[in-house]
Amino acid sequence: MASIEVHREEIALDEPTFVDGLPGLGLVGKIAGDHLVDTFGMAHYASCHCDGLPEVAVFQKDDPVYQTPVRVYADAERDLTVLQSDVPVSPSAADEFAGCLCGWLDDTGATPLFISGLPTEKDGVPELYGVASDDSTTMADHDIAPPTQSGVVSGPTGALLHRAKRDGLGAFGLVVEANQNFPDPEAARVLLLEGIGPIAGFEVDTESLVEQAEEISEAREQLAKRMQDAGEESSSAQPMGMYQ
């Protein structure tokens, strides 16, 4: 049965901010999500057993206990939850996954931040844009600029945004310029400093993302290559042509 299985009921959360750490274009969401989990020492709070997710086991270095590939981590102090995914969500399973996850987010009263990379030839610091499912809370409240052109978010993140809108779940979409061929720690840093942090109301040290950019890129590049080899279409934001 499709569900989100909570393991740590003793962790008290009150309408938390939820950060989508799915691996998409530039792996920006995954890099940002992993950084939050590691930096804040977040606890493994729940496991995702949604239809369509790969039924595989994930193990980590020096850890004798294996885990499910898609998990939720929690930090009660910051009222924060983060989705950590070690596998891509197949586009063919995106609808089922979005329904499963958004239903749980609605039940918990969470405010989701869904993340996507915008492929671009960057010149300087990557630009960040934001959209919301409604106008009750605008990105302007957090000094996040609206998009400068029309576009569409595809893949699993697009399905999550679509489902949130359909179900009346207040959600934010954060779109950051990113490298479409390689993992992009710089874009993830902009996400954390200019998007996730201001909306969620906390500060996070990102110096390690700069210092370890090469190491992070090499590790995440292996995941990006596996996604390409498997023919998986990652989430991304794409401009729309005038006649599309």
- Could you state the CATH homologous superfamily? PAC-like subunit
Strand order of the largest sheet: 1-3-4-5-2-6-9-7
Q: Specify the structural class.
A: alpha/beta
* Helix count, DSSP H or I runs of 4 or more residues: 6
Main sheet properties: 8 strands, mixed
- The level-1 CATH class: Alpha Beta
CATH topology: Rossmann fold
Distance between the termini: 38 Å
Which runs of at least 5 residues are low in confidence (pLDDT < 50)? none
Q: What integer is the average pLDDT?
A: 86
Q: What order do the SSEs take from the amino end to the carboxyl end, as H and E?
A: EEHEEEHEEEHEHHHE
Instruction: Please indicate the percent range of residues in DSSP E strands (runs of 2 or more).
Output: 15-25%
Task: Describe what you observe in this structure.
This protein has 244 residues and is α/β, with parallel strands linked by helices. The chain has one domain: PAC-like subunit (Rossmann fold). It is 32% helix and 23% strand. It contains 6 helices and 10 strands. The strands form 2 sheets. It has an 8-stranded mixed beta sheet, with helices on both faces. A hairpin with a 4-residue loop joins strand 4 and strand 5. Helix 1 (28-40) crosses helix 4 and helix 2 (94-108) crosses helix 3. It starts with a strand and ends in a 5-residue tail after the last strand. The model has no long low-confidence stretch (mean pLDDT 86).
Please give a quick description of this structure.
With 244 residues, the chain is of the alpha/beta class. It has helices at 28-40, 94-108, 155-166, 185-200, 207-211, 213-229, and strands at residues 3-6, 17-19, 43-49, 70-75, 80-85, 111-119, 128-132, 151-154, 172-178, 236-239. The strands form two sheets. An eight-stranded mixed sheet has the order 1-3-4-5-2-6-9-7, with helices on both faces. The protein has a two-stranded antiparallel sheet with strand order 8-10.
